[in-house]
Model the fold of this input.
Amino acid sequence: MTELEEKLLGTQAEVEAALQSVKDDAGLEALRLKYLSRKGILPGLMGQLGKVPPEEKPAVGRTLNGVKTAINAAFAAAQARLQAKSEELAAVDVTLPGRVRCHGHQHPITQVMEESVAIFRRMGFIVADGPDLEDVWHNFDALNAPQDHPSRAVTDTFYFDLEHHDYLAPDTMILRTQTSPVQIRAMQAHPAPVRIVCPGRCYRRDTPDATHGMSFHQIEGLYVDRNVSMADLKGTLEHYAKEMFGNQVRIRFRPHFFPFTEPSVEWDASCMICGGKGCKVCKNSGWIEISGAGMVNPKVLEAVGYNPEVLTGYAFGMGIERIAMIRYGINDLRLLYENDARFLRQF
Ligand code: 2NL
Done:
């Protein structure tokens, strides 16, 4: 092989290697200039064909043509590769934002429930749990509900198997109408002092409307000890209100009646929309009703085997749906249960 043929084949190998790793059009153009332009390496070598002795010319000429064809093919292949790559990039809009995954979160009822529990836990309350399916004794009798109390009616409470059970019998099973029976069970199981909160689902036969469903959530609280007073109750509820609705909130007690507490109150928080001045939300009163509370009726303490001569206690019960509606400004309970993600996402 002549020296020129060696140089030609060497150049071909060099070009092919360089084209393999070329990254863009500018790199390709640089190689084209280096090897193929008028003053480039390949035309330079072609110029030397003139000096080749006549008898070697046909063979060297064939090598030269082969090298030229191979180099042109290598350039064409590299160009096609770059072209394909840029088309691929153009098909994807790399400036588009990424696809954001939909994150779930807690239902507003769960949020208000868990936050309420957390507030009371910070004040020393312990969470107590009990069955949704209760007997009449724990749900009504132990709570001093008279036999003719309206909430005992079969039209107000979900009773089981009334074919075989009297709705007034203590062992008749019902869906609990409040979480108080959990507190009755806690007092039966533990001597005083007790300081518990009972969050959970309760059931009442209502015709569904903006503020009624067939079940709702409640958190009840109970503190029984020596020397527990109404002032303790008020301080506890005031702290809860400030934690839940903001530090500016004030509370007030109004006289009320429950069979299980004496005295009983309903309590209001100053309206957090208008600060107590009066607005549409508080119907110009400056106050929003939160829930009921009172001093545990001595008859309830007796029913669970506590001595009402030495023990006193307070209790309260709050509807979680009501707190959530006040807190988030929701005016229809049904919105909370329709499970429309576009609605629930806001909270
Ligand atoms: C309401 C507010 C209330 C209680 C629940 C209670 C529990 C025991 C003893 C005494 Cl074990 N009371 N719970 C007290 C006051 C109010 O709920 O509006 N209920 C109908």
